[in-house]
Structure formats: C-alpha cells, structure tokens
Amino acid sequence: RGLAAVADLQGRHAQAMALYEEIIQVLQRRYGPQSPRATEILPEAAWAIFNGGAYRRAAELLGQYINRAAAQPGADPRSLAEARSRLGSFLCKLGDYAAAETVTRRAIAEQTAVAGPRYMETAVSRIILGGILTERGDYAGADAELQAALEIVQSLVAAGDPFLATVNTYLGRLRMEQGRVPEGVAILTEALKMREKSFGPASGIVAYNRYLLADAWQHLGRQADALAAARAALEASEKTDGPAHPGALLIRIGTAGLLREQDAHAEAVAMLKAIPVNALAALPAQHPLAVSLRRELGLLALESRDFTAARVELEQSLRLAQQCY
Fold first, then answer.
1. Residue 137 — φ and ψ, nearest 5°?
2. How far is it, in rounded angstroms, from Cα 242 to Cα 251?
3. What is the Cα–Cα distance from 19 to 239, expressed in whole angstroms?
4. Which of 46, 89, 131, 268 could form a disulfide with 58 if both were Cys (CB 3.0 to 4.6 A apart)?
C-alpha cells in the first residue's frame, strides 16, 4: 500500500493503479468483499486510479465505498460527505453532469449539517459544483457557488495558498465562458503563477492551467503566445501523464483547435491523427472529449471542402453533445 501511494505521488500512474487493484483483490479474498478492511481502501485507490485517467473505474470504486460505508453502523457522516463530493468531481470528468450535480449538492448539504457552511471541505464541494454548473451552462449558479467558495477559502488560508489557485482556475474559466475575457485572462494568469510557484512549471497540474491561459490568449488575438503556451502545456501533460490520459487528450484536441483557427490546417489534422488508438475507449461514448474531437474533425473537413465528411462528423458531434449536455 505504501508503494502504491508513493507511485501515485510520483506520477507513476500505471504502477499505482496496478498496485491498488492488486491490493483490493487481496483484501477482498482474505476478508470478504463487504468487509471493513476491503472497504476502507477504496477511496484511496479510487483517487489514484482517477489520477491515472481511468475515470469510470474510479467512480465505480468510490460508489462501492459510499454504498458499503453508509450501510455500516456508526458510519462517519463527514467521511461519507467527502466521498460524495469527490464522486461528484469524478462524474463531472465522465461528462455525467446531472448525476454529478445531484451527488455534489447532497455532499454540500451533509457537510453543512455536520460542520457548518464555512468548513474547508464545504468550500471544495462548492468549487466542484461551480465547475459542474459551468459545464451545464448555469453561469449564474456557478458564479454564486465559486464566490461562496472563494470567501470561505480566503477566510481560512493565507494569501498565496495553493488552494486559492484552484478557486481561481474555476473562476477564470467561468469568466471566459461568460465572455468576460479580460477579467478571465487576469484571473487565469494569477492562477498559473500561483500553481507554478507551488508545483514548478513542468508539472502536469500546471499544464492544464497553462492550456486554459493559452485558450484565453487566443480570444485576445495573442495567437503566437497562445500557440506557444498550448504546445508547452501539451508537452508537459503528455510527459507527466502519458498521451492517452484524458487531461492530455483535452489539451491535444484544444491545441488542434487553436491551429485550425490560425489556418494551420495540416498541422491540426496531424495533431488529431496522433491521438493514440482507442484512447477514448475507457470513456463514455458521449464524453465531452468525443464531442470536441468530432467537432474539430468536422470543422477541419469543412475547411478542406470535404463537405460529406464534415457533415458526418458535425452531426455526430451534435448527437453526442445532446446526450452529454
């Protein structure tokens, strides 16, 4: 278990995932699948497996933990609420936004009842809910949740704390979705600086922030800066997590979009063709990454005047988006 935890912390995701799956099997064989010992490992294993990009498996394990723990006498409501909150973030990554919103709202209600509204983990759940509502297009609701989370965090941590970067990442992305571009760029710039200071510029965590800022710069017309930042983000993400990780795929598809918008169509096509075979197989068919990939392929086909292929890809993207959102 210690080796698995160290592997996860060091970003050796494949090794960590394999070790945790082995630990789960051993504990279930020795003590029984419903036993406390086989149950208590599940949140830790789910988090490592989530970090490795296996979102569906992570959600499955955490759901098992919640169901088993809730059925045990004297279950800790605080731990259960925290697990529900994390499950909400997993479901969001899977693109199951309705279920994610439901379970996260329940977590917030339970955390508020147990520890009060100004509890740090209540703030975490509000951040997660803010992200879910952003994806669902409820920008007013997302703003309310993120502002409430920011107020809690600012009252509990010092200026410059890494946790503030998390709030700002979500808030900056929301501002971009709202069309408040200059404000979004300012917030995302600050979030990137804070995360670089905490984790170093080559970190996989920082890569996502760098990509968000690249996309924001594209909106400001800073095309050279946007593309340079996106390329750097993609390199760091693939080096840290591997090219088939959903986080790396998001950045690759997004970078192809930036290339398309800058009329570098051949390079954009090549970037999408470099996606590993079956990279999306572990995700739901209507996952947001599948929506984005089909849309980019369709728009690139349209640019090359292959209208038949463009229609096929864009119609598929629309169908998937209607299922997802």
1. 85, 10
2. 12
3. 21
4. 46
Long-range contacts of 251-255 (CB under 8 A, 24+ apart): 251/207, 251/208, 251/211, 253/289, 253/292, 253/293, 253/296, 254/211, 254/214, 254/215, 254/230, 254/292, 255/211, 255/214, 255/227, 255/230, 255/231
DSSP 134: H
Sequence-distant (≥ 6) Cβ neighbours of residue 7 within 8 angstroms: 13, 15, 16, 19, 48
For residues 12 and 48, is the Cβ–Cβ distance under 8 A?
Answer: no
Q: What is d(CA 323, CA 325) in angstroms, rounded to the nearest whole number? A: 6
Do residues 275 and 236 make contact, with C-beta atoms less than 8 angstroms apart?
no
Nearest to 43 by CA among 67, 26, 62, 59: 62
Look at the chain and count its residues: 325
Tokens representing residue 58 in the block: 């992570």
pLDDT tens-digit profile of 6-64? 999 888 889 999 999 999 999 999 999 899 999 999 999 999 999 999 999 999 999 99
Sign of CA dihedral 131, 133, 139, 141: negative
What is d(CA 85, CA 65) in angstroms, rounded to the nearest whole number?
13
| pTM, rounded to two decimals | 0.90
> Angle CA(175)–CA(211)–CA(134) in degrees, nearest 5?
35
**pLDDT over 90 (residue 264):** yes
- With DSSP H G I counted as helix, E B as strand and the rest as coil, what are the percentages for the chain, rounded to 5? 80, 0, 20
Q: What is the pLDDT of residues 91-147, one digit of tens each?
A: 999 999 999 999 999 999 999 999 888 889 999 999 999 999 999 999 999 999 999
Q: Would you say residue 170 has pLDDT above 90? A: yes
The answer to whether 52 and 14 are in contact (CB under 8 A) is: yes
- Residue 251 has phi, psi (to 5 degrees) of -70, -40
On whether the CB atoms of residues 275 and 249 are closer than 8 A, the answer is yes
